[in-house]
Amino acid sequence: MNKSLLMAFGGVLALLGVGVYWWFSTPHSAAEQLARATAYQQKKMAELAVWEVQDPERFEATKDEVYQKIITEYQHVQTRFPESNLGDEAQLAIGDFYADQLDDPTAAQDAYQQIIEQYAGSNSHDDALLNIARIKAFRREDDRLKLEAIEDLKTLIQTFPDSGLADDATYDIGRIYETIDEADAALEWYQRVLDDYPDSEWADDAQLAKARIYELHKADAERAADEYGKLAKEHPNSDLAKTAQQKKDELSRKVIEDATHTTHPSRGGGGGRMPFDFMHQMEAAEVLRNEIIAAQKLDVLAYDLDIKLDPNANSLHGTARVTLQNQGDEKDEISLKFCQGITILSIRNGDQLLDFEHEYDKVAINLPVPLPPGETLTLEFNYSGVENDAPSWSGDQIDPHGSYLRFESKWYPQSHWGDLFTVNLTLSVPQPYTGVSIGRKISETNTDGTHTSIWQMDQPVFAIVVAAAEYEIQKGNFAGTPLTVYLFKEDKDKLGDYLQHTKRIFRFYTETFGDYPFAKFDVVEIPFFPGGYGPPSMVMITEKSVKKGDDAIPLLAHEIAHQWWGNKVSITMTDDSIPWLNEGFATYSDALYLESQGDRDDLVQKLDELTAVYFKAIKFQEDEPIATCKWGNPAYQPIVYYKGAKVLDMLRFVMGDKTFFEVMRTFADRHTFQNVGVADFRTTCETVYGDSLNWFFEQWLYQPGALALEIDSTQVTKQDGQYQIEVVIHQDPPYFKMPLDVKIDPNIAERVWIETGDLHLHFRSPKKPKTMTVDGENWLLKMPSQQHLKRDLSNDVS
Ligand SMILES: [Zn+2]
User: Fold this and answer.
1) What is the mean pLDDT of residues 768-781?
2) What residues have CB less than 8 Å from 7, skipping those under 6 apart?
3) Distance 529 CA to ligand 1 centre (A)
């Protein structure tokens, strides 16, 4: 009611002229006198406002007299027309004048108080109470008065339940409680605004206040996101809707990230040092750059790198010889990705120095002699850089505590994502550091205080990664493949454990997915980002994870799974070659490893935990199909990794264990050292399964959502010594076609298919049915409220 008035505290209304007519005519009634007073106030206050600026002396000299005249005009309503019933309204106007225009809460409170004392039965009683309470609550610094104000407002609501100000009073009680940090009481009263006065103009403010309290007082980001979301959804026309939506998005991102990281820390993508929004922008730039670079059709065939890392100086010096082949049109300029934070000293083609431009993580190189289609070219880059916290290094680090360079930081010149190449690398670090890289270790020397190691990767891979630190090392092997664990000195006691776990994981994966493809395997500890990282022939596990002891083993299993899913079989991150093919697969692989060390219950429990995060994420972030969900979506990990793993489990359910594991082995064998897409996987699935699986891929990869099932009704009748059991299972849209295990104790177990709408089932049994269970082994991705589809039938017999 008084919202606009409240907002206009101290504002001067310059409505000059509105009441001029009234002023010149003599009032014959209280109503005319009241109008005259209002007009006089407007006219005089407008005049004073002008003088205040143009003639401050005159303003100061006359203002008090003018104010008194305005008050007197209002007082005339009662003095000249004592029989009228407008005296209280005039008094209310005087109170407002003191409160809003003269900023004199004491005088205002007196004026309002007179209404209560002198005009019993006045229609303005509720206004007076509200205004007095607001003065006590918001214009005084006294908590005792605030509590008094709450009592005044409660009186207002009780005494005048039908007052148009009851919603104001309710909202104000919430506000007062909030200012004195009584969060629960404030929430209760804001909620009353929403429940009792859903159409109040304060409803959006009350909703906002609730969200704010959950965010700031209660530090409950999840609930706050929910409340901000309600405001945006239920009050779309409110001024507050846009801000609420932004807050919701921001908090949702936080909630999803927190849930994701506590459940299953994994490849961090170097995000640890950067605010998410910034990464998001970087990612957008990355996509654009990737598109430009991919369009050139330049294929790097081989790298020959000579890299010197100096952790003490945080620096890198390198020479990279890059042999590339032109698979596109003739070119007189080529572009490669290269870290902005590293200085390129020169680029040569043989003896010839080439011109280049290096900006935005991209180097454009002029070729004096155009490169014809099909031709190869070897360029030699000389470069040098000091790693600092600048985002251009994408979170990578060169530091005495531990150094690591992942391909994402573009520390060597790169063509498109998914490019496959072989590598020769010489890595030098000052002693006592030890360098590690991908590929087979050809040699290792310590000369003149420098540790130099030479690495050779003969298989085509998509990434070059190096790490260096003062490592403690333990060596072993799995079926002839050298395994080496590199841990920081303080984690020395865990070397043996890591070696044992690695062997166990290798045994399981080689038996399940086929041969390990590389010449060696290393487990390497690095200092930063939460989680791990699985480039070809090694995994990097962060210090934080290593400190967790056995709790980090699922992570180790996930990263080792990338040797098959991502490295042996690689992906390009194009529309068909989606991250599910490595991340969903690796996540499911570590769940399978867990199952292999225990039983199916362990896998089910793990998948339940993961899909719970997915369901939580899609409460806050619109669900998206696995196939289109990209890095940058806050729900990327929940959708691609977690739901993605569950989708593989459902595929296993559809096919049966024997066929499913044959598919996984065949897929890895058939596409060793190739980039694959979803179509390749589907082809393998259909070939081995012997039937079309279009329906499965269509609904689980290209559509969002999960099954929403319930047991709608059950009926049991007894006829000729047989029990007839009628069951209706209901599915809410969007509909999924899936097999469904239905079990009725003690003697019925059937696999049926659900497709659309209601499924009517009829069973016959000589034995009295006890309980019915649908999907009792929890194979299907079902909405969280329907995790347990179970019904007691023992009392159903009619
Ligand atoms: Zn991964």
Assistant:
1) 93
2) none
3) 14
